[in-house]
Design goal:
Radius of gyration: 30 Å
CATH architecture of the largest domain: 3-Layer(aba) Sandwich
Structural class: alpha+beta
Distance between the termini: 87 Å
Strand order of the largest sheet: 10-12-11-13-14-15
CATH topology of the largest domain: Dna Topoisomerase Vi A Subunit, Chain: A, domain 2
Order of helices and strands: HHEEEEEHHHHEEEEEEHEEHEHHEH
Low-confidence stretches: 1-8, 21-44, 133-139, 365-370
Mean pLDDT: 82
Number of domains: 3
Largest sheet: 6 strands, mixed
Strand content: 15-25%
Number of strands: 15
Helix content: 25-40%
């Protein structure tokens, strides 16, 4: 049964409040015109995206404290957190640091930037190193261009010579020409000394599509599940852009296509009158179509592939795009699998490289269609 008296009494209370209480106008709260962020973050990035971005963006350990050699594979210096002299140790290969005074467990580069800032989660570092919309892979290469703009000012050629002259047996002349042309620069990436290599457009103005980093000591970058000594910066467009050595394509009658930029410099040193193009990987063949506008003045496009299955597949893919003008070098049956032209250079087989380029054979079009 409904309680009608309760309903009447309740209504009396309401009427009393409306007739006797002070009426306070209620207005909506002011709307702030100040944005919450001064950047355009990617919405809800996952933790791996955040860590990959931070590994590419954070200043290296060397920026946190002055480090010196301690033992094989280790550096030491003052702790960037507590300041204790020579108590901080960095494992160079693992890129993990620890302090014997304040942080016994230690951590990687992201962990130490978090400790110093007083942050509790990697995403907190996005306040200082935001993920801009244009840095998302596949969107634009604006961040890649900005990175190269800062790297290209580096005039340190000693590290460049360590990689290309000391380790790869290229001549100082070839390396210095590539440096003078703005093709290579020394850099630091994910706390490792390396060489930065721009991959540019073939047509019109030099537009940068991708930026590759190669470690100087040959040891791999260590982060996540990756363990490679050559990586591209996040945001690079792998389907466009080449590393171009020696003769510009507009002035060349022969183009030699290789996988890696070190092979491109190798061929350019031994056969100087050709245009050498590196794709960066046998997987990046879509960009080969950018050679089509140049086919009219080219007599040959020679694929100088590595001696492996990927190299054989690379020949077929290039020939399928450029057809009759495609030739390729031949390896001997006795050559080890995985051999490339720079391996021949390091073993002193300069004349053999020249003969391989001069003796390149045509690719069977019927085989290409298969």
């Amino acid at each position: 049964m409904k309680n009608s008296n309760f309903c009447v009494k309740s209504q009396d209370v309401i009427d009393h409040i409306e007739n006797n209480c002070l009426q306070i106008p209620i207005s909506p709260p002011p709307v702030s015109t100040t944005p919450l962020y001064n950047y355009s973050p990617v919405k809800y990035p996952d933790i791996q995206t955040i860590r990959d971005h931070l590994n590419n963006s954070l200043p290296p350990f060397e920026s946190l404290t002055a480090l010196k050699n301690h033992a094989t594979g280790k550096l030491c210096g003052a702790c960037p957190l507590c300041g204790s002299d020579d108590r901080f140790y960095l494992n160079i290969k693992e890129q993990r640091g620890y302090c014997t005074h304040c942080e016994e467990r230690g951590g990687d580069l992201i962990d130490w930037h978090m400790k110093i800032k007083g942050y509790t989660h990697p995403s907190d570092l996005l306040n200082d190193y935001p993920i801009h919309q244009e840095s998302v892979p596949g969107k634009t290469v604006a961040d890649v261009q900005r990175r190269w703009n800062s790297i290209v000012k580096n005039n340190n050629v000693d590290d460049i010579h360590k990689l290309f002259v000391s380790r790869r047996n290229l001549s100082v002349e070839t390396v210095n020409k590539a440096y003078a042309a703005g093709k290579i620069r020394a850099a630091t990436h994910i706390s490792k000394s390396c060489v930065a290599v721009p991959f540019l457009s073939l047509q019109g103005e030099n537009f940068l599509y991708a930026l590759q980093f190669i470690t100087i000591d040959g040891e791999p970058f260590q982060f996540g599940d990756n363990a490679k000594n050559k990586i591209f910066q996040k945001g690079s467009n792998h389907d466009d852009g080449f590393f171009q050595a020696r003769t510009e394509i507009e002035q060349a009658s022969i183009v030699v296509i290789v996988e890696g930029m070190i092979d491109a410099l190798t061929v350019a040193e031994i056969v100087p009158d050709v245009c050498c193009l590196a794709t960066g990987s046998t997987a990046y063949t879509k960009k080969i179509s950018h050679l089509k506008p140049h086919l009219e003045h080219l007599s040959k496009v020679i694929v100088c592939q590595d001696n492996d299955e990927a190299g054989t597949g690379f020949i077929k893919k290039v020939a399928g795009i450029l057809q009759d003008k495609v030739f390729h070098v031949q390896w001997m049956e006795s050559d080890p699998k995985g051999l490339d032209v720079n391996d021949l250079l390091k073993s002193g087989q300069v004349e053999r490289i020249r003969q391989m380029i001069d003796g390149a054979v045509g690719q069977d079009r019927k085989q290409n269609r298969e």
